[in-house]
Amino acid sequence: MSIQNFGALPDGDHVLRATISGHGLTVSVLTLGASVQDIRLEGVDHPLVLGFPTLEPYLGEGRYFGALVGRYANRIAGGRARLGGETLDLDRNQDGRHMLHGGSDGTGTRNWMLTTQQADMVGLADHLPAGHMGFPGAMLIRATYQILPGPSLQLTVLATSNELTFCNFAQHSYFNLDGAPTIAEHRLRIPAQTYLPINKDLIPLGAPAVVKGTHLDFRRATRLGERLDGPVIDHNMCLSETRSLHMRPVATLAAGDVTLDICSTEPGLQVYTAAHLSGGAEGLGGRPYGRYAGIALESQIWPDAPNHPHFPSAELKPGQIYRQVTAMRFRRDGS
């Protein structure tokens, strides 16, 4: 474990970078957003996630890169939701109309506290006061990144609140496994039979629809280059109707001789092919990230669940413990 000063925020608070290693995997995590900044696999000469070598891009074009977003990941339509018989008025940080990733001061933009430091593990914590971004309940969040045999990077998120509230976190790394300018040669498999159709604001329209016959059918490994010229992919894949106590496979991504297997306790997987990227600051590979430079595979509760009673519940009761576990196993051909 090594800890470095990664730079200072506009308010003078310092961002730290913790680097952990084990089993042939090396991972760097920033206190800003509890963000995975870099992942390196032994024998591979390029990073496996999009990230930046300096702090400044994370305050602009790199917002959410690798971050742990919440207290409600993804979108809540109109920034409004019913909870406990009351209507919540939430921060509307998406075009002034909808809430995205917990609001303008969501956990993906906050500077977390570094709590645990070991050679192969780093722990972080954040505290959200009652009323933060419009949500009731003071919330304590703890996140642990640990490298396990495989090698696998396992993320465990624990959260508690002193009032009834909503809780939904997602790890927002953009993966690129072959170091190419785009993910066109990546092959993606997701064992989802249904997905959530969305409107122009990326808000779910209602009930899930079957993936068969659509550009979102990844039940068999599919080369992404075949799908990038079609409709933008930024959808929730419906893996189950409830959260699980145990992890289950949610996605396999492969490119070159590297394969990523993701398992999670969460009932949904948001898939986004980074169509908005247009190049700016140099990334970890020494070049700006253009369109389709990476793919986000975000394990989470379904978007806008507070406004859809038939979606998996995102309610967290007082004293109840929210627990998400998501594991990212990296392997090379033959390993």
TrEMBL record:
InterPro entries: Aldose_1-epimerase (IPR015443), Aldose_1/G6P_1-epimerase (IPR008183), Gal_mutarotase_sf_dom (IPR011013), Galactose_mutarotase-like (IPR047215), GH-type_carb-bd (IPR014718)
Keyword Isomerase part of the UniProt annotation: yes
Superkingdom of source: Bacteria
Keywords of the record: Carbohydrate metabolism, Isomerase
Entry's EC annotation: 5.1.3.3
Pathway: Carbohydrate metabolism; hexose metabolism
Record field: catalytic activity: alpha-D-glucose = beta-D-glucose
Keyword Isomerase applies: yes
MF GO annotations: isomerase activity
Family in the record: Belongs to the aldose epimerase family.
Protein known as: Aldose 1-epimerase
Annotated source species: Paracoccus mangrovi
Lineage: Bacteria, Pseudomonadati, Pseudomonadota, Alphaproteobacteria, Rhodobacterales
